[in-house]
Amino acid sequence: MKRVLSGMRPTGPLHIGHYLGALGNWVRLQEEYECFYFVADWHALSTMYDESGTLAEYTDEIVKDWLSVGLDPERSTLFLQSAVLEHAELLVLLSMITPLSWLERVPSYKEVRQQMAHKDLATYGFLGYPLLQTADIIIYRAHYVPVGIDQLPHLELAREIVRRFNFMYTGDEEGGIFPEPLELLTEAPKVPGTDGRKMSKSYDNAIYLKDSAEEVWDKLRPMITDPARVRRTDPGDPDRCPVYELHVFFTPEDHRSEVAEGCRKAGIGCIDCKKVLYAELERVLAPLRDRRDELNRKPDLVKQILTDGNDRAREEARRTMSDVRDAVKLYSS
C-alpha cells in the first residue's frame, strides 16, 4: 500500500470545521492507504512556545476526537511527534543543506508573522517550520500528503529538499533514499461559526466535537441569520444566512430544499430552521459523543494507543535514519 502522512497541532479542541475539512478525509484514506497521523506538538511550539503547559491536555483531547470520528489505531499509526526523536535528527541534517532563502520565500512565513504581530516570531523554530514538516514527511518515506491549496508551497519545498538530498548524497535526484511526496488535494470548506465569521477557536464561535447536546443548541439558538430578516413574517435569503451554510454541510438535499423554500416564503422562522439543523448536527455528533464517553471511561486507553503508535513510528524512523546516516557517511561506532 502507498503511504500517507498528516498531522495536527494540539492547539485546542477540534470543531466541526476540522471534521468537514480534514478528519472525515483522514478516515476515508484509511481504506486505501497505509496512514501515519501524528500530533504535531513541536510544530505547536513554533508559535505557542510560551504556552507549552497546554500541549499535553490538548494532545489527549484531539486524540479522543480522532478516535471518536473513526480513526482506527489498528489501521492507522497514531503517534506523538516529540516521541520520535529521529524527526529532530533528520531536521538537523536537512538544515545543513537547505539554503536560508528557500525558507524565507515560503508565503506563510511573512503572512503568519503579520497576522501574529503581537508575538515575537523572529525565531529559527518558526522560520524552520517547513523544514521540520519536510522531515516529518520524508522520514516515513510517505508517498502522499493530504493538503489544501494553501499548503502546496510547503510540499513543493519538501520536494526540492528531497531532490537536493538525494542528488548530493546518492547521486540520484529521482531514485535516492527519499521518494518525492505528492499532494492529495483536499477541499478546505469555509465553515461559518456562530457569528458568521470562519469557525475558529480564536474567535470563540466554534461548535466542538466534544460539545454536549445542550451546548450545541445553546450555540445554535442565538446564531446570526439573514440580517435582512427582521420579523418572523419577513421572507429571507438562505444564500445570506450562515445557518443555511451549515445546512449545506449537514442536511440532506431534499430536506435542505424544504428549509430554503420555507425561508424564502417566510413559511418557517429562524428558530424552526435552527431546530432542523440541530437535529441534523446531532445525527452526526451524538455517535461521536458516545464514543468519546466510552474513551473517558478508559483513561489509560489513549496513552496506550499513543505508546503503541510511537513504537511503530520509531521503528520506521530508525530504519530510515540508518539509511540516511550511511548515505551522509557519518561515523558509525
Count of structural domains: 2
So how many helices? Answer: 14
Instruction: Give the tally of β-strands.
Output: 5
CATH class of the largest domain: Alpha Beta
How would you characterize the overall build of this protein?
The structure is a single chain. It is built from 14 helices and five strands. It has 333 residues and is mainly alpha-helical. It has a three-stranded parallel beta sheet with strand order 1-2-3. Strands 4-5 form a two-stranded parallel sheet.
Short overview:
Helix content is 53%, strand content 8%. With 333 residues, the chain is mostly helical.
Key terms for this structure?
333 residues; mainly alpha; Rossmann fold; Tyrosyl-Transfer RNA Synthetase; 2 domains; two-stranded parallel sheet; 53% helix
Detail the topology: elements first, then pairings.
Layout: E1 3-8, H1 16-29, E2 34-39, H2 41-48, H3 55-69, E3 76-80, H4 86-95, H5 100-104, H6 107-115, H7 124-127, H8 129-138, E4 144-147, H9 152-170, E5 182-185, H10 213-220, H11 242-250, H12 253-264, H13 270-296, H14 301-328
Parallel strand pairs: 1-2, 2-3, 4-5
Helix pairs in contact: 3-13, 4-8, 4-14, 8-9, 10-13, 11-13
